[in-house]
Design goal:
By secondary structure, this protein is α+β, with helices and mostly antiparallel strands. The chain is built from 17 helices and 18 strands.
Amino acid sequence: MQTELSRMIESICREKGVGRDVVIEAVEQAILSAARRNYPSARLEAKYNPEIGKVELFRVLTVVERVKDPNIEISLEEARSKDPEVQLGDEILEKLPEVSSRVGAYVARQNLLQKIRDTERALVYDEFKKLKGELTHLGTVQKLDRRNIIVNLGRTEAVLPEKEQIPRERYRPGDRIRAYILDVEMSQSQGPRVVLSRTHPGFLIKLFEHEVPEIFQGIVQVKAAAREPGVRAKIAVTSKDPDVDPIGACVGPRGTRVQAVVQELRGEKIDIVLWSEDAAEFVCRALAPAKVSRIIIDDEERKMEVIVPDDQLSLAIGRKGQNVRLASKLTGFDLTVKSESEVAKEQQDARLALMQIEGVDEALADELYESGVRTVEDLANADLDTLLEAENLTPEKARELQERARDWIAQHPAEQQSSEADLSSAMTSDAGEEEFSEEGPSASVEAAEETRGS
């Protein structure tokens, strides 16, 4: 039967895109909320009857021998007049008059609308929560709010905070925009809040996934990415298929794939690096186009000292430290880049400092240096195993040298502090050096035209 209520239910289902069962439940709850004003202590139930197009209201009564509270109880005698088979302790439903007062109708409507809003918000939240870490479809800039950009995504609005915007990017209302879904939050007062980003490394990865079929298919994998948004980025890739060149696949025919990503990132230059399981080799590739002479690794501290030829130092560090900074982010190692002449001077300074201790000649000083012992204080405090890495050094001799080092420190405190200051940039490491003389595989968007396509 078509009634005003049934038509309203159908209308809400169409307009809001909410299931009929959800709307009916909201209507029932709204009627219950209004009815409780008249029956505050009663147990109530509301059921929508589609045959009459109305919500029927019932009071739940427990069958008892003697009634103490008529709002929740009914006598056995009265109950059997309604149902002869009822027993003590059973519950029966007593139909109540419809909620038809203006106050009741108003409360019902308001509760219904709030329930619909809450349901819509929950649906939107669930939808976008699943999309966290993905790209949005093209949204529309709706307005600018205190340097934040409000984006219309269709089902909801999202915010692109100022700190998540690429520097020097400018948008106006009506512009189309794509971004990375950084987070989805739920606010009790405002509903779901979708936070976008165009600076997150994940945005770069997802753009490549969108442009490179081999990444989408899982043949080529992106292992890491690092960005200085709007300026430069590095991305590390590898291939599961030996016949597929991961760098070539990302560059694309005539550089079309990487150029599409660069265009979306407003000219951000991109270095595509071949990933390696070997940490030292990976670092060398990440620092390309600079050539690396050798590396000293401290696995425990996740640090590396990278030594390069003098003419490669500025290339390895990059403009304002950009190249080494991005390589550090990409590889997960704290990198210190030094020239060969700088390291040679440090080694000579350390050699002279250690040779102040009686019994330490030039050869032993060099061996101690390679073991990570670079100051007199290092010698005094080193563990015995470290010192015994030096050839022809017995435990007794090592302990004797340590005692002499401690005596020297006690007699020359000012000189020791000066020596430490001169060597403050040197890294202590228990690891050996690894030699690298060739430039690691990588590709830059600047050379995209020269790089073969996949």
